[in-house]
Amino acid sequence: MSDTTDNSMLVVLRHAPHGSSWLREGLDVALVGAALGKKVHLLFLGDGVLALATGQQHGPLGQKGTHPTLDMLEMYDIDMILVDGKALTQRGLTADDLQLPVSLIDDATLPEIFARHSSIYNF
Amino acid sequence: MNYALLVQGAPYSQQAAHSALRFAHALIARGHTLGTIFFYHDGVYNASRLATPPQDEPHLVEAWRRLHEDHGTSLLVCIAAALRRGIIDEREARRHGKAGYAVESPFELTGLGQLLDVHSNHDRLVTFSP
């Protein structure tokens, strides 16, 4: 996280996949930011941590699903993925259950994370 | 200060857009500038010229339009979020062979990249989500 600059943006994802388009439309903002040369960091909070659970599929609703997008993040140089450890535990998950390598954070560091980014988008 | 608002809630279904409008008026009353409102997610429904609320309810689409007319506020609508929800302008309607359209000036369909530009060239971006 040492490369945080005025060019950095934090995209906060707080919704589970599939039930709404929040996750997909939030990730779209992250991808556009990366394409425009911003240093994008993702922060998964609350139900948002479910987005990272492995083994997801498209499902019967015909939605595209977000797991392929998550696999593409590395191509966009989005490699700082912060996850609320407590939210994971509350949902019976550990970092090993996630489809990407993540950095676990706790509540106490949130204010500092928010303060460190020049722009924040909340989904 | 020059403010921008990010509105992500549909009008009438949820509070977000209504609160955003009240905040917009409060900002201007305090002497601030409201440079831009960006509509994303279900907020794109705020741009539908076809909205026809009962006369005894606030007309949000008209209220946004008036902010543009009276204060020069830009009204930007994310094109990707809008198209999939049927919120298209005349040009997109022609392109996709549709008979009607929902977005007209002063609302503008624009790319998501504009949201990032708005964030960097305004002093504050305030988000209103359901």
Automatic annotation (TrEMBL), chain A:
Give the UniProt family note: Belongs to the DsrF/TusC family.
A Pfam family hit: DsrE
The record's Gene3D superfamilies line, in alphabetical order, gives: DsrEFH-like
**Lineage of origin:** Bacteria, Pseudomonadati, Pseudomonadota, Gammaproteobacteria, Oceanospirillales
Database matches in NCBIfam families:
PRK00211.1, sulf_tusC_dsrF
Which species is this UniProt entry from? Modicisalibacter luteus
Q: What is this protein identified as?
A: Sulfurtransferase complex subunit TusC
Automatic annotation (TrEMBL), chain B:
Gene3D superfamilies per UniProt: DsrEFH-like (3.40.1260.10)
Give its E.C. classification number.
2.8.1.-
The places in or outside the cell where this protein is found are: Cytoplasm
Major location category of this protein:
cytoplasm
Lineage from the top down? Bacteria, Pseudomonadati, Pseudomonadota, Gammaproteobacteria, Oceanospirillales
The record's gene field reads tusD
Tell me if Glycosyltransferase is a UniProt keyword of this record.
Answer: no
Lineage, top-rank taxon, reads Bacteria
* Similarity comment: family membership: Belongs to the DsrE/TusD family.
Could you list this entry's UniProt keywords, alphabetically sorted.
Cytoplasm, Transferase
Protein name listed in UniProt? Sulfurtransferase complex subunit TusD
MF terms in GO: transferase activity
Classification via SUPFAM superfamilies: DsrEFH-like
Keyword Cytoplasm attributed:
yes
